[in-house]
Structure formats: structure tokens, C-alpha cells
Amino acid sequence: MDLLHAGNLDGFCLVSSDSDFTRLASRIRESGLMVYGFGEEKTPKAFVDACDKFIYTEILRPTEPAGAAPPVYRDATVFKDMKKDQKFLKLLKNSVEDSSDEQGWAELGLVGQNIQKKSPEFDARNYGFKKFYELIHSLDLFEEDERQSKDQVGKIIYIRERVKKYRK
Known about the structure:
The strands form two sheets. Strands 1-2-3 form a three-stranded parallel β-sheet. A three-stranded antiparallel β-sheet has the order 4-6-5. It contains seven helices and six strands. The chain folds into two domains: 1-61, 3-Layer(aba) Sandwich (Rossmann fold); 67-168, LOTUS domain-like (Nucleotidyltransferase, domain 5), CATH 3.30.420. The protein is an alpha/beta fold and 168 residues long.
């Protein structure tokens, strides 16, 4: 708390899987600072939700020997379960809708930020993907459009929910 009151920090990193740190995380956020949490998958949901960003330490551990190509998915069931996980799909679709323009297009970066606000523990690596784009692309639920940025070098990816075509 002394560090918090010193006033020269941008945020805190709390490394624990213990719910006793929930109030501390909340107090730090009340002071306007970012709280990054790191802990095991057994971490209580209350502590995870009290953080701005929470990363499960299991995704940080090497699963392959050094120099070996990493697998695309940690487990084959992860991908199947992901497409059946209604809570995850609802979070994803709502975040796209909340970030979209009149035509339904949403900038992928904004979608990711929106998801992060709603679910601090969300990380594409939890589903076996290195990047959020890879996860979105694998689901095949969204149209994708790459657009040249007006302000920056590079392209920006936009997504929108696929329109289902029905037979007459």
C-alpha cells in the first residue's frame, strides 16, 4: 500500500492463485491503476475478475522441448469444445456487435479490447492459439476484411458475423 500511495506507478502485477488478494486488486483499481494478475487455473473467479488482465500461468510454461515446433492446439478437444462453448461464443459475438459499425464490421483490436474488459482471464493461448486473430480465423464464424490504415503503416483486420444463407 505504501507503493500505491507513493503515486509514481502505472500499475501492479499480482502473482497468486489465492482469493485473499481479491480486495487488494480491487483497491488498486479503485485508485485508477492497472492490475495484472498471474495465477494457476484454480484461481478463484472473484480474484480473476478483480484484475484488469489475468493470465493463467499454465499457458506460460513450455510444453515442447526447445527448438521443437509448437502444436497448433494444446489439446484436440479444446477446438471442438470452443465451438460448443455457448458462454464463449456469446461473449465473442456480443463483443463484435458492441464494436461494430452500421454494416456490422468491427476492428479486430477493438473486439479484443472489448472481450478483455468483459472477461479479464480471456487469452487466445487458453484455447491453444498464439494470437487472437488465429483463434477468430479458426472458428470460421466471421467474414474478414483487411484494410489499409490511414494513420499507420500496415493493415487493420475487420470482422463481422457471417450472414447465413438459407435455401428457399
